From TrEMBL:
Keyword Transmembrane included in the entry's annotation: yes
Protein name: Cobalamin biosynthesis protein CobD
UniProt source species: Nocardia flavorosea
Places the protein is found: Cell membrane
Pfam families documented for this protein: CobD_Cbib
The keyword Transmembrane helix is annotated on this UniProt entry: yes
TM segment ranges: none
Length: 310
């Protein structure tokens, strides 16, 4: 089977496995990589950018190298790698669980669940605050956990899938601007920004396409994206959050409380602040965008096997 076709078949099979099974409950390879990265950090850490660059290159390079070694196996390793890297179904399940708890007034249960979605301090949030935190996280992670892996897999096969997840995981571990990681985590944060530049914008376009299914209008999505995305401190989160705000007709951003302190995030969108009902629509929007992302990913993969003209 030609490489582009086997890549496309592997993407489709891996996506199906993610929809059916979600993330493995035990022994997830991404969790294993996180443990390895934490162990390596004890040897590479220094309060310098150069040390962070070495740390990033060592770990991402090792993962990409492993992907290169197994990619010749055809569609099967591609399918398994896709399933391992995708997290869209688990993201939906967590969002749905959050909706159910908030709808029955179980604020304490929703607070217990929030750390599975984001790093905000749940103890200071009421029901609407929990809904907003979950909604913003679902919008951002639709790109990180689903659209970006599919696109990187389509372009670069198994090495692209594994390399992207390594970059994204390292950013989640050390890509912070606190005292310990301001310098050491700089490379991880920048690498993640670069890896998500195109996927975030594809996510924004797909959000516009499927917006009518959740009561939105494509033109409004594009308008809010163009007007508000640049206000966000992240070049990629601003795109996907502004697009989601436009599709759902709500306003995101504002006072945001983390365990390490308080940030005043720029407001995105023109509508009212999100309520619990909007979180249910956001979960549906995430699901639709994930399915929509399959088309460009498969098209890219198949395009790789077309013979070039002399």
């Amino acid at each position: 089977m030609r490489s582009g076709v086997s890549t496309a078949v592997g993407l489709l099979a891996g996506f199906a496995l993610d929809r059916i099974l979600g993330d493995p409950r035990r022994g997830h390879p991404v969790a294993g990589f996180g443990m390895l990265a934490a162990a390596v950090e004890t040897m590479t850490y220094a309060d310098r950018r150069r040390a962070g660059i070495v740390h990033e290159a060592l770990l991402v390079g090792a993962v990409v190298g492993a992907g290169v070694m197994v990619r010749r196996g055809g569609a099967l390793p591609m399918a398994l790698a896709t399933w391992t890297v995708l997290g869209g179904r688990s993201l939906e399940r967590t969002g749905e669980a959050m909706v159910r708890r908030l709808e029955r007034g179980d604020v304490a249960g929703a607070r217990e669940l929030l750390p599975a979605l984001c790093g905000r301090d749940p103890e200071v949030l009421d029901a609407d605050g929990l809904a907003r935190a979950a909604l913003e996280s679902i919008a951002e992670n639709t790109s990180d956990a689903a659209v970006a892996p599919l696109l990187w897999g389509a372009v670069a096969g198994v090495p692209g899938l594994l390399g992207y997840r390594a970059v994204n995981t390292l950013d989640a571990m050390i890509g912070y601007r606190n005292v310990r990681y301001r310098r050491f985590g700089w490379a991880a944060a920048r690498a993640d920004d670069i890896a998500n530049l195109l996927p975030a914008r594809v996510t924004g376009l797909l959000t516009a396409v499927v917006a009518p299914a959740v009561g939105g209008r494509p033109r409004e999505v594009v308008r809010i994206w163009r007007r508000d995305a640049g206000r966000h401190p992240s070049p990629n989160a601003g795109v996907v959050e502004a697009s989601a705000a436009g599709a759902l007709g709500i306003r995101l951003g504002g006072r945001t409380e983390y365990r390490h302190g308080i940030e005043q995030r720029p407001e995105l969108g023109d509508g009212p602040p999100p309520a619990v009902a909007d979180l249910r629509r956001a979960v549906q929007l995430s699901k639709l965008v994930q399915y929509a992302a399959l088309a460009p990913a498969v098209a890219l993969a198949v395009a790789r096997c077309r013979p070039r003209r002399a």
